[in-house]
Amino acid sequence: MTGWNVGDIPGQDGRVAVVTGGNGGLGHVVARELARKGASVVLACRDEGRGSAAVERLRGEVPDAAVELARLDLGDLASVREFAHGLPYERVDLLVNNAGVMALPYGTTADGFETQFGVNHLGHFALTGLLLPTLLATPGARIVTVSSMLHALAKVDPRDLNNVRRYGRWTAYARSKSANLLFTHELARRLAARDGAADLRAVAAHPGYAETGLQTAGPRAEGRRIAEGLMLLANRVVAQSPEGGALPVLYAATAPDVPSDSFTGPSFAMWRGAPAPSWRAPWTTDDAMGERLWAASERLTGVTYEALKH
């Protein structure tokens, strides 16, 4: 995959792609390049105003884009169900679980879950499960979940999934990103074990250090102006562009030879560069931990992945 870039994305004509958080950052680039290659793209966004602006921006960049907006708040399971049940397509070829929050002060979702675990993992777990029958019925479909190289900072603690014992914004973020990888591993394992489901691939990717706006959201929310300024400076000096950060996600989403349960990231020190297989912490491929997280996620969300039990 040396030197792989957006020009190498295969044609996407006739394919339907759902991109969460498609209103900005990585998600907007991913949606734009999929649309440029002919996919019908659904921007799944929490803020309808920002989402509408993103649709107009995308149509300006790709005049013949087939793109539409649908509201999705991953921090509200009722919204996740409404989105999934209202999706007007008989096929979904690609689900990109991209939206997320990073290093926020402690808070909870509409359902009472710690925000980073609730949005980054549980919301996408529920969304994937609700769309799973459609994904299974679509030949060659793929689920891409966006994690982070910072997953290496902390493993999932099954005794404290909601991070209430001792909250640390970066630890909670790292746990949610480890949960993304554990979810991908366990989903891939269950798909492989179900007759006729192996054609659906579950993969993961990360952008390295890319300027996405996530880095400054936490400091801004707390009014920590010095920390926000330092993050802005770091983004300017060392981060790669959203276009560069989106490449591993686009590769994981479209390259024909991507194996299930793979983890794609930038080639240079997990930081920047062309897409390449990425290192992942050993706890993200632990079958027993994957099963525990899966069981807890089903219980907490009420989404039970019935299609994998037949």
What would you say about this model in short?
It contains nine helices and eight strands. It is α/β, with parallel strands linked by helices.
Task: Name a few traits of the molecule.
310 residues; alpha/beta; eight-stranded mixed beta sheet; globular
Describe the secondary structure blueprint for this structure.
Elements: E1 16-20, H1 25-36, E2 40-45, H2 48-61, E3 66-71, H3 77-86, E4 94-97, H4 115-136, E5 142-146, H5 169-193, E6 201-205, H6 214-222, H7 225-237, H8 242-254, E7 263-268, E8 272-277, H9 287-301
Parallel strand pairs: 1-2, 1-4, 2-3, 4-5, 5-6, 6-7
Antiparallel strand pairs: 7-8
Helix pairs in contact: 1-8, 3-4, 4-5, 4-9, 5-9, 6-7
Give your account of this protein's structure.
The protein has 9 helices and 8 strands. The chain has helices at 25-36, 48-61, 77-86, 115-136, 169-193, 214-222, 225-237, 242-254, 287-301; strands at residues 16-20, 40-45, 66-71, 94-97, 142-146, 201-205, 263-268, 272-277. The relative contact order is 0.15. The protein has an 8-stranded mixed beta sheet, with helices on both faces. It is globular. With 310 residues, it is an alpha/beta fold.
